[in-house]
Write a structure and sequence with these properties.
globular; 313 residues; 2 domains; single chain; MetI-like fold; 69% helix; mainly alpha
Length: 313
């Protein structure tokens, strides 16, 4: 609701922009636009009704996922979002999987070798990665590895090459990997640190508990104590971020999508705000809110799967 009214009351709306384009298109910057044209534009963009009435109309329409038509693309908003969704979906899923696949084993290893050279060196590397600004790293990767000024090892722009449709299955897989490497590095560069340290600290807390002492007293191997007994309970704090992957799909990364010319949700959000494409902006806000709520439910379900002792009844 807040977003709707802020957008509606902000200056420079779609009608004003259309009037400006008509003035400049006529060849005279000071040319007047008739009242009839202004009224027609207000009706076309749904601005001929009071703002409160427009809000309740929008609220009624979203129950059928009718977000109206995009001012920029001149087609249904839901079709515009669906067309941009695959890019954000692919990077969201892959970056999530990479983060957990690397962070959980690394966190376990750091806990097992607490205070060793391995623990210290990996901690330094993780904090360096965490301090790197992803979009600046993207620019540097392009300059050094994508034909900017040095090597030309990776493509830039899009997720597939021009001849993608003519490739075989493994050729298509290789082509996508080739296009994904640089953007993915930027997507996940800072995501390992928090998860890895959370996993490590969670395991260090678990190994102080009585059931771990009992397992050790039974003569179990130290690796089995950590991996078989401590890890499952240590995963409970870690799974809180699992549900966040849904919101990633509807957020994307505005800066990274601009740097790597990826036509995803993040870039759509930016261009829609700049062009005052209100139906698209409101649809993205609504879907993002729903994704966050569903993500919280998924996190709760993950809690139960990891620890059956948790009961929400």
């Amino acid at each position: 609701m807040v977003t709707f009214f802020v957008l509606e009351l902000a200056p420079g709306g779609p009608v004003e922009q259309k009037i400006q384009s008509l003035k400049f298109g006529s060849g005279a910057s000071g040319a007047a636009v008739s009242e009839e044209v202004i009224e027609a534009l207000n009706k076309q963009y749904g601005r001929d009704k009071p703002v409160v009435q427009r809000y309740f109309i929008w609220l009624k329409n979203i129950f059928t996922l009718d977000f109206g038509d995009s001012f920029t693309y001149e087609e249904p908003v839901i079709d515009v979002i669906i067309s941009k969704f695959p890019v954000s979906l692919q990077f969201g899923i892959i970056s999530l999987l990479l983060s957990y696949i690397i962070s959980i084993p690394l966190g376990i290893a750091k806990a097992m070798f607490q205070g060793s050279k391995f623990d210290i060196i990996t901690s330094v590397m993780l904090f360096i990665a965490y301090s790197i600004v992803p979009f600046m790293l993207g620019i540097l990767l392009i300059v050094f590895f994508a034909g900017g000024s040095f090597l030309d090892l990776f493509p830039i722009g899009g997720t597939t090459s021009d001849q993608y449709e003519f490739l075989g299955f493994w050729g298509k897989v290789g082509d996508r990997i080739h296009h994904f490497i640089l953007p993915l590095i930027c997507y996940v560069i800072g995501s390992f640190t928090t998860l890895t340290l959370l996993m490590k600290n969670s395991i260090l807390e678990e190994i102080k508990k009585d059931y771990i002492r009992t397992a050790r007293a039974k003569g179990l191997d130290e690796k089995a104590v950590y991996i078989k007994h401590a890890t499952r309970n240590a995963l409970i704090p870690v799974v809180t971020g699992v549900g966040g992957f849904l919101s990633i799909f509807f957020a994307g990364s505005i800066l990274l999508e601009q740097v790597f010319q990826l036509d995803g949700i993040g870039l759509l959000s930016y261009t829609s705000v700049m062009s005052r494409d209100y139906p698209v902006v409101m649809a993205l806000v609504f879907l993002q809110a729903i994704a966050m709520l569903l993500g919280n439910i998924i996190s709760d379900i993950a809690y139960v799967l990891v620890d059956p002792r948790i009961d929400f009844d």
